[in-house]
Design a protein that fits this description.
Elements (H helix, E strand, L loop, with lengths): L1 E6 L3 H10 L7 E7 L2 H11 L3 E5 L7 H10 L5 E6 L4 H9 L4 E4 L4 H49 L10 H8 L7 E10 L6 H23 L5 E7 L2 E8 L4 H21 L4 E6 L9 H13 L9 E3 L9 H5 L2 H13 L2 H15 L6 H21 L11 H5 L1 H4 L3 H41 L6 H8 L3 H12 L3 H19 L4 H7 L5 H12 L3 H8 L1
Organism: Candidatus Scatomonas pullistercoris
Subcellular location: Cytoplasm
Keywords: Cytoplasm, DNA-binding, Phosphoprotein, Transcription, Transcription regulation, Two-component regulatory system
């Protein structure tokens, strides 16, 4: 609603204006009244009204002075002047100050309503223009921000980009960048969801949190930067900041405040952890790839750091070829042997031994990552070398290395890897058993489809491609029954079904399940069920 203030030295005039029109009809309300100019000015300062209706002649400050002082204070309401016939010169002065209109006393309702209607339309028009300008400004800002973000995205996905070779003037002209300060850093904010396999939940969590964290990073860091570019990339928030040397403490303080805010999100997602990897200082964009790698490496150094939220890059303290001495050729041979023999306890024990060897080196995340990658390669090689290929489909390095993206601590990652290997080896073992049992399943299937025909051990062996003697041995080992005993059970089982569900004679049923000799069928039926076919039908039919 539009707020209205009425100012007149006559109380009766104020009351007349208050009740002369229906203010709700114009979406307006009386915010206050005053009977002298000074009080009116104080009321205007307090209420910031949209409309002021004032007499010209008033004690303390007259109407003209009231308008002038109000405008000087930066307050611009619509003014309506009330004047007498002898005050026409004052009214002209008021009009020159931008007064909306003036009304002669005595006031008439239609004249006041006409002025209010005109003001209402002007106000709505102003609002529409202001909204349009605000929208256009917002679009312009968003467009400029998108151009900057595109620069960062281009640097991340295009290794052959020419952007790093551009000077600051070209960057300003092409992308609107203001790299005016000496210090440029790259920050990578990463969410560790605490679960590798539950990718749907991981995606939902990151989809919810990343935009919020991106906004918080911008709000907290941008005020201390000459330039700030931020985007989401590969489920991270990537920030490129250009700042002065003196802003380091302010940036660090802002990130620690962000850490406090993140604790609120962890109440919703208790398994989630968040860290920020920071690159070393570089020239604006000349060595962007190295800066990005440094920030990623900083995230790997989280295992043995006091502050696991803010991770600033530092050079590795160990030679990378140390990984070869931590996982020796002998270790590799033993692990491969365990996989070949499906020795799950031996494999797990060897992994634990290597884990203990890595503990003194946790401060160097790159070294730990190299060792883990080596273990993953060994496991993949072993598991793909000693199976038919079906089992290993879908198993790859990306899946095994994804533990570093989702799990926070070294122990969590190592335990997941050990359990995953154990589970896969068990599945491999079961798969191998399944492959070995496949001929028996085929034999059973053939028997079920042809039990009413002449079936012999030789016929079934030929169907599945086995030597009869070998098939007889394998069948007994797998089922615990001799081939002919199993065939008899299948035939009698089908005979039972026919006795209960058909009106066929005993002879017809005997023939239907593969026996031409009715007496032999009856003896066999009684031997297996302790009832004759007729007794079985009578008892259960």
């Amino acid at each position: 609603m539009l707020k209205v203030i009425i100012s007149d030295d006559e109380v009766k005039v104020i009351q007349l204006i208050r009740y002369l029109v229906s203010w709700d009809q114009f979406d307006m309300q009386i915010a206050g009244t005053a009977n002298d100019g000074q009080k009116a000015l104080e009321l205007i300062c307090a209420e910031k009204p949209d409309i002021v209706i004032t007499d010209i002649r008033m004690p303390s400050i007259d109407g003209i002075q009231l308008i002038q002082r109000t405008l000087e204070l930066g307050i611009h309401p619509f003014f309506i002047i009330i004047s007498g016939y002898g005050e026409f010169a004052y009214a002209q002065k008021a009009i020159s100050l931008g007064v909306e209109d003036y009304l002669l006393k005595p006031l008439k309702r239609k004249e006041l309503e006409a002025v209010l209607l005109k003001i209402q339309k002007k106000y709505q028009s102003r609002q529409q223009i202001a909204q349009k300008e605000s929208f256009l400004l917002s679009q312009l800002n968003e467009s400029q921000e998108k151009i900057k973000n595109n620069l960062l995205t281009e640097l991340l996905i295009n290794k052959n980009s020419l952007i790093p070779t551009m000077d600051t003037i070209s960057l300003q002209k092409e992308y609107g960048c203001s790299f005016t300060e000496a210090v440029t850093e790259l920050l990578v904010l990463h969410i560790f969801t605490g679960s590798v396999e539950n990718t749907t939940v991981n995606s939902e969590e990151r989809g919810f949190l990343l935009p919020k964290l991106e906004k918080e990073l911008k709000n907290r860091l941008a005020p201390f930067c000459a330039d700030f570019i931020c985007t989401q990339y590969k489920e991270n928030v990537i920030c490129l900041i250009n700042r002065s040397q003196q802003a380091e403490e302010q940036i660090t303080s802002a990130l620690l405040k962000l850490k406090i805010s993140i604790l609120g999100y962890q109440n919703i997602y208790p398994d989630m952890r968040i860290s920020v990897g920071v690159s070393s200082i570089s020239l604006p964009l000349s060595d962007f790839d190295s800066s990005y790698q440094e920030a990623q490496t900083a995230l790997l150094d989280r295992f043995n750091r006091y502050d696991q939220f803010l991770l600033i890059h530092h050079a590795s303290g160990y030679a990378q070829d140390l990984a070869a001495s931590l996982i020796t050729s002998q270790d590799q041979r033993e692990l491969i042997s365990c996989i070949e023999l499906i020795d799950i306890p031996g494999f797990t024990k060897k992994l634990e031994e290597i884990r203990r060897h890595l503990l003194p080196y946790l401060s160097d995340g790159s070294l730990v990552y190299s060792c883990y990658s080596k273990l993953a390669e060994i496991f993949l090689f072993g598991i793909k070398s000693y199976n038919s290929g079906e089992f290993s489909n879908g198993l790859n390095m990306d899946f095994l290395l994804s533990a570093f993206d989702h799990l926070f601590t070294f122990d969590e990652i190592y335990q997941w890897f050990s359990e995953t290997c154990k589970t896969l080896l068990i599945q491999y073992l079961e798969g191998r058993k399944t492959l070995e049992n496949k001929p028996i399943r085929l034999a059973k299937q053939y028997i079920m489809e042809h039990y009413n025909e002449t079936i012999t051990l030789e016929i079934v062996s030929r169907e599945i491609g086995f030597n009869p003697a070998y098939f007889s041995t394998v069948f007994l080992k797998s089922t615990g029954q001799h081939f002919m005993d199993y065939l008899k059970e299948v035939r009698i089982s089908n005979a039972k079904t026919m006795l209960l569900n058909t009106n066929k004679s005993i002879a017809e049923i005997a023939s239907a399940v593969g026996y031409s000799d009715l007496k032999y069928f009856s003896r066999l039926f009684r031997k297996l069920t302790h009832l004759t076919p007729s007794e079985y039908r009578k008892l259960y039919g």
